[in-house]
Specification:
76% helix; 162 residues; mainly alpha; single chain; 0% strand
Protein backbone atom coordinates (compact mmCIF):
# COMPACT_ATOMS: atom_id res chain seq x y z
CA UNK A 1 0.00 0.00 0.00
CA UNK A 2 1.13 3.49 -0.65
CA UNK A 3 -0.11 4.95 2.58
CA UNK A 4 -3.06 6.64 0.93
CA UNK A 5 -6.47 5.57 2.15
CA UNK A 6 -8.62 4.31 -0.65
CA UNK A 7 -11.87 6.10 -1.08
CA UNK A 8 -14.73 3.76 -1.51
CA UNK A 9 -17.13 4.55 -4.28
CA UNK A 10 -20.39 5.99 -3.00
CA UNK A 11 -23.22 3.54 -3.22
CA UNK A 12 -26.25 5.14 -4.74
CA UNK A 13 -29.59 3.92 -3.47
CA UNK A 14 -31.85 2.87 -6.33
CA UNK A 15 -34.68 5.40 -6.83
CA UNK A 16 -37.46 2.92 -6.06
CA UNK A 17 -35.90 2.10 -2.68
CA UNK A 18 -35.43 5.78 -1.89
CA UNK A 19 -39.10 6.45 -2.62
CA UNK A 20 -40.19 3.53 -0.45
CA UNK A 21 -37.89 4.63 2.40
CA UNK A 22 -39.24 8.17 2.15
CA UNK A 23 -42.82 6.86 2.18
CA UNK A 24 -42.09 4.76 5.28
CA UNK A 25 -40.64 7.82 7.03
CA UNK A 26 -43.64 9.99 6.08
CA UNK A 27 -46.05 7.32 7.33
CA UNK A 28 -44.15 6.93 10.61
CA UNK A 29 -44.33 10.66 11.36
CA UNK A 30 -48.08 11.06 10.68
CA UNK A 31 -50.98 10.65 13.06
CA UNK A 32 -51.90 7.02 13.82
CA UNK A 33 -53.91 5.31 11.08
CA UNK A 34 -57.00 4.91 13.26
CA UNK A 35 -57.16 8.71 13.67
CA UNK A 36 -56.96 9.62 9.97
CA UNK A 37 -60.24 10.38 8.24
CA UNK A 38 -59.51 8.80 4.87
CA UNK A 39 -58.62 5.47 6.47
CA UNK A 40 -61.70 5.57 8.69
CA UNK A 41 -63.79 6.13 5.55
CA UNK A 42 -62.13 3.20 3.78
CA UNK A 43 -63.07 0.89 6.66
CA UNK A 44 -66.56 2.38 6.88
CA UNK A 45 -67.39 1.95 3.19
CA UNK A 46 -65.77 -1.48 3.01
CA UNK A 47 -67.70 -2.57 6.09
CA UNK A 48 -70.94 -1.26 4.63
CA UNK A 49 -70.44 -3.31 1.46
CA UNK A 50 -69.41 -6.42 3.41
CA UNK A 51 -72.42 -6.19 5.70
CA UNK A 52 -74.72 -5.74 2.70
CA UNK A 53 -73.16 -8.80 1.02
CA UNK A 54 -73.69 -10.88 4.18
CA UNK A 55 -77.29 -9.73 4.48
CA UNK A 56 -77.91 -10.49 0.81
CA UNK A 57 -76.53 -14.02 1.14
CA UNK A 58 -78.52 -14.60 4.35
CA UNK A 59 -81.73 -13.57 2.58
CA UNK A 60 -80.87 -15.58 -0.54
CA UNK A 61 -80.08 -18.73 1.45
CA UNK A 62 -82.27 -18.70 4.59
CA UNK A 63 -81.81 -21.55 7.04
CA UNK A 64 -83.98 -23.22 9.63
CA UNK A 65 -82.28 -24.64 12.68
CA UNK A 66 -78.54 -24.77 12.17
CA UNK A 67 -77.38 -21.42 10.68
CA UNK A 68 -75.28 -22.89 7.88
CA UNK A 69 -75.34 -19.72 5.77
CA UNK A 70 -73.60 -17.70 8.49
CA UNK A 71 -71.18 -20.57 9.06
CA UNK A 72 -70.34 -20.66 5.33
CA UNK A 73 -69.95 -16.86 5.22
CA UNK A 74 -67.60 -16.88 8.21
CA UNK A 75 -65.51 -19.73 6.81
CA UNK A 76 -65.27 -18.21 3.32
CA UNK A 77 -64.35 -14.86 4.84
CA UNK A 78 -61.67 -16.39 7.06
CA UNK A 79 -60.11 -18.19 4.08
CA UNK A 80 -60.12 -15.14 1.82
CA UNK A 81 -58.82 -12.92 4.61
CA UNK A 82 -55.94 -15.35 5.15
CA UNK A 83 -55.10 -15.21 1.43
CA UNK A 84 -55.41 -11.43 1.28
CA UNK A 85 -53.35 -10.57 4.34
CA UNK A 86 -50.61 -13.07 3.54
CA UNK A 87 -50.42 -11.73 -0.02
CA UNK A 88 -50.16 -8.15 1.21
CA UNK A 89 -47.49 -9.01 3.77
CA UNK A 90 -45.41 -10.75 1.10
CA UNK A 91 -45.47 -7.75 -1.24
CA UNK A 92 -43.99 -5.14 1.10
CA UNK A 93 -44.58 -2.59 3.84
CA UNK A 94 -48.09 -1.74 5.02
CA UNK A 95 -48.10 1.66 3.29
CA UNK A 96 -49.75 3.31 0.33
CA UNK A 97 -52.03 1.14 -1.78
CA UNK A 98 -51.32 -2.01 0.26
CA UNK A 99 -52.59 -0.27 3.40
CA UNK A 100 -55.66 1.05 1.57
CA UNK A 101 -56.47 -2.45 0.25
CA UNK A 102 -55.96 -4.00 3.70
CA UNK A 103 -58.24 -1.47 5.37
CA UNK A 104 -60.96 -1.36 2.70
CA UNK A 105 -61.13 -5.06 1.84
CA UNK A 106 -59.59 -6.78 4.88
CA UNK A 107 -60.76 -4.74 7.85
CA UNK A 108 -63.77 -3.14 6.18
CA UNK A 109 -65.38 -5.56 3.74
CA UNK A 110 -64.46 -8.84 5.42
CA UNK A 111 -64.93 -7.32 8.88
CA UNK A 112 -68.53 -6.59 7.88
CA UNK A 113 -68.98 -9.76 5.82
CA UNK A 114 -67.91 -12.15 8.56
CA UNK A 115 -69.73 -11.83 11.83
CA UNK A 116 -68.96 -12.81 15.36
CA UNK A 117 -72.18 -11.25 16.60
CA UNK A 118 -74.39 -13.48 14.44
CA UNK A 119 -72.33 -16.49 15.54
CA UNK A 120 -72.93 -15.54 19.18
CA UNK A 121 -76.66 -14.88 18.71
CA UNK A 122 -77.15 -18.08 16.70
CA UNK A 123 -75.33 -20.05 19.40
CA UNK A 124 -77.64 -18.65 22.08
CA UNK A 125 -80.72 -19.34 19.93
CA UNK A 126 -79.66 -22.94 19.42
CA UNK A 127 -79.10 -23.35 23.17
CA UNK A 128 -82.47 -21.77 24.02
CA UNK A 129 -84.29 -23.96 21.50
CA UNK A 130 -83.41 -27.00 23.55
CA UNK A 131 -80.24 -27.98 21.70
CA UNK A 132 -77.39 -26.96 24.01
CA UNK A 133 -75.06 -29.68 22.69
CA UNK A 134 -75.60 -28.50 19.11
CA UNK A 135 -75.00 -24.88 20.15
CA UNK A 136 -71.67 -25.76 21.78
CA UNK A 137 -70.62 -27.80 18.74
CA UNK A 138 -71.69 -24.98 16.42
CA UNK A 139 -69.71 -22.34 18.34
CA UNK A 140 -66.61 -24.48 18.86
CA UNK A 141 -66.75 -25.85 15.32
CA UNK A 142 -67.03 -22.33 13.89
CA UNK A 143 -63.97 -21.17 15.78
CA UNK A 144 -61.86 -24.24 15.04
CA UNK A 145 -62.87 -24.43 11.37
CA UNK A 146 -62.45 -20.67 10.98
CA UNK A 147 -58.91 -20.87 12.30
CA UNK A 148 -58.17 -23.85 10.07
CA UNK A 149 -59.44 -22.22 6.86
CA UNK A 150 -57.63 -18.95 7.68
CA UNK A 151 -54.43 -20.97 8.02
CA UNK A 152 -55.25 -22.75 4.75
CA UNK A 153 -55.69 -19.37 3.06
CA UNK A 154 -52.28 -18.29 4.32
CA UNK A 155 -50.68 -21.50 3.05
CA UNK A 156 -52.36 -21.12 -0.37
CA UNK A 157 -51.12 -17.53 -0.67
CA UNK A 158 -47.57 -18.61 0.20
CA UNK A 159 -47.66 -21.41 -2.38
CA UNK A 160 -48.99 -19.04 -5.04
CA UNK A 161 -46.06 -16.63 -4.45
CA UNK A 162 -43.41 -19.36 -4.81
Amino acid sequence: MTGKARKSAPHATPPHLTRERDEIFREATKRPVHLRGRFILLVFFGGTLGTAARLGLSLLFPTDGLPTTILAINLAGAFILGVLLESLIRTGQDIGMRRAVRLFIGTGFFGGFTTYSALAVDTVRLAESGEPEISVLYAAGSLVLGTLVAWLGIVCARKARQ
